[in-house]
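User: tokens in, sequence out, please.
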């Protein structure tokens, strides 16, 4: 069964949302990121990880929205476990150069992409 992306609208509304505001991207891109997301053993149960360029994302299940429904949010690359970054690089989601840049990241990028 394919994963279903279910945005958490109340939390991520611009400009007054709370938490990590998701970049303003087309819904299709968010779905594509979820489809390519990976699980990393021993790094957070029920978490999926994806990356694109300067952005790293974490996804959690949304059981209230149905089976295999997920919502995701951006995370600061410098706060992401090294095993996740290396997994994303191995899977071809980021290059070694992007891995180094994410590792040094201390705040979320300003805009997508």
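Assistant: Sequence out:
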């Amino acid at each position: 069964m394919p994963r279903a992306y279910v945005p958490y609208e109340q939390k991520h509304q611009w400009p007054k949302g709370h938490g990590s505001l998701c970049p303003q991207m087309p819904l299709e891109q968010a779905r594509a990121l979820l489809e390519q997301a990976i699980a990393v053993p021993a790094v957070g149960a029920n978490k999926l990880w994806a990356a694109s360029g300067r952005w790293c994302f974490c996804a959690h299940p949304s059981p209230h929205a149905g089976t295999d429904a997920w919502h995701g949010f951006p995370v600061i690359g410098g706060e992401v476990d090294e095993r996740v970054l290396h997994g994303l690089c191995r899977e071809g989601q980021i290059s070694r150069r992007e891995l180094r840049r994410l590792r040094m990241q201390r705040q979320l990028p300003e805009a997508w992409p």
